């Protein structure tokens, strides 16, 4: 009987997985085609699942597994433990990784590539939900105004107006970075003061656009966008200096550039979405309405913002309650 190899300790820890060898390359390609075509998963999800699967195959290769059928539950457990001890993956990333591994072996079992699924006895861990990072109203005011007050683009006013409009819209309507990239000109309805978004799972939703964001969008569309893409009358709402659609990486860079200029560290695009939802809940908005605005299919996902509100209430209680103040 082959002895169980040790946990992964030797492979280098890198931000991206190393290239695969056969037979893992072929399995990787087939599974990615399955989740992209038959499951219809988004490209972001496909990329994440692909990276998860690469890490799994690297572990199996390191454990000396030559064929998928030889994968045992013990090896899968060792692999999952190594994600925390070696790869240093966060808790939520580890839970998603287990979802990928389960889905892959279920596919392999269904397609006859293995006779037994080694993940069936594994318990599904409870997802630890970290409270979302949010910006205070004062911090948001600094972030949203920085491109109005500072020249971050060497005199290119069009890019400054684009940044103001983009940041205002992200906070006003709770956009994901991918939604910023994919939003079309015709998705913004000026007379309605609303924007149509295509979210996860190709779900459409209409979200109101606040007055400051409407004003910023109007200024960008009338004074700036045609300077970035003079020949374009249709296409994406937000574009680069070369008139091309923005990428998710570009949205990250724009947010980071403006945040740094505003003296804010560690700001990322989704933080504006978290702030949008949190401030609505704190202001008394109905949770079901916030769910619709965010495009969540399950209200349990939206409910995390009520915990943020409770944390604030607890701090207020501790600060102002007479007995708490004397303690």
Helix content: 55-70%
Helix/strand-derived category reads mainly alpha
Strand content: under 5%
Runs with pLDDT <50, length 5+?
A: 1-17
- Helix-strand sequence: HHHHHHHEEEHHHHHHHH
- Order the strands across the largest sheet as they lie in space: 1-2-3
Shape estimate: globular
Instruction: Provide the CATH topology of the largest domain.
Output: hpI Integrase, Chain A
Number of domains: 2
At a glance:
With 327 residues, the protein is mainly alpha-helical.
Question: What are the main properties of this structure?
Answer:
hpI Integrase, Chain A, 2 domains, 15 helices, DNA polymerase, domain 1, 3 strands, disordered N terminus, 4% strand, 56% helix, 327 residues
Q: Any chance you could write out the topology, listing elements then pairs?
A:
Blueprint: H1 24-38, H2 43-62, H3 73-85, H4 91-110, H5 137-149, H6 157-173, H7 177-182, E1 188-189, E2 194-198, E3 204-208, H8 211-223, H9 225-228, H10 248-261, H11 269-282, H12 287-294, H13 299-302, H14 304-320, H15 322-326
Helix pairs in contact: 1-2, 2-4, 5-6, 6-8, 6-11, 11-14
């Amino acid at each position: 009987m082959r002895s169980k190899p040790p946990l992964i300790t030797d492979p280098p820890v890198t931000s991206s997985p190393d290239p695969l060898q056969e037979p893992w390359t072929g399995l990787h390609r087939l599974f990615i085609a399955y989740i992209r075509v038959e499951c219809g998963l988004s490209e972001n999800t496909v990329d994440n699942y692909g990276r998860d699967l690469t890490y799994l195959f690297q572990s199996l290769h390191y454990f000396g597994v030559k064929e998928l059928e030889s994968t045992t539950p013990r090896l899968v457990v060792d692999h999952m433990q190594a994600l925390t001890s070696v790869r240093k993956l966060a808790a939520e990333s580890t839970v998603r990784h287990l979802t990928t591994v389960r889905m892959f072996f279920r596919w392999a079992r269904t397609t006859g590539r293995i006779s037994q699924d080694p993940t069936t006895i594994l318990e599904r861990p409870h997802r630890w939900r970290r409270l979302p990072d949010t910006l205070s109203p004062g911090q948001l005011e600094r972030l949203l105004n920085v491109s109005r007050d500072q020249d971050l683009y060497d005199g290119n006013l069009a890019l400054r107006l684009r940044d103001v409009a983009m940041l205002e819209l992200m906070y006003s309507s709770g956009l994901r970075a991918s939604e910023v990239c994919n939003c079309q000109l015709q998705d913004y309805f000026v007379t309605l003061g609303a924007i149509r978004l295509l979210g996860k799972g190709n779900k459409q939703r209409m979200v109101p656009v606040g007055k400051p964001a409407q004003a910023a969008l109007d200024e960008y569309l009338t004074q700036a966008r045609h300077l970035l893409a003079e020949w374009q009358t249709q296409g994406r709402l937000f574009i680069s200096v070369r008139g091309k659609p923005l990428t998710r990486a570009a949205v990250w860079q724009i947010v980071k550039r403006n945040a740094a200029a505003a003296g804010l560290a560690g700001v990322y695009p989704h933080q504006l979405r978290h702030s949008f939802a949190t401030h609505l809940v704190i202001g008394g908005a109905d949770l079901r309405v916030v769910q619709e605005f965010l495009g969540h299919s399950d209200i349990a996902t939206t409910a995390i913002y009520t915990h943020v509100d409770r944390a604030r209430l607890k701090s207020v209680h501790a600060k102002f309650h007479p007995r708490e103040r004397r303690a």
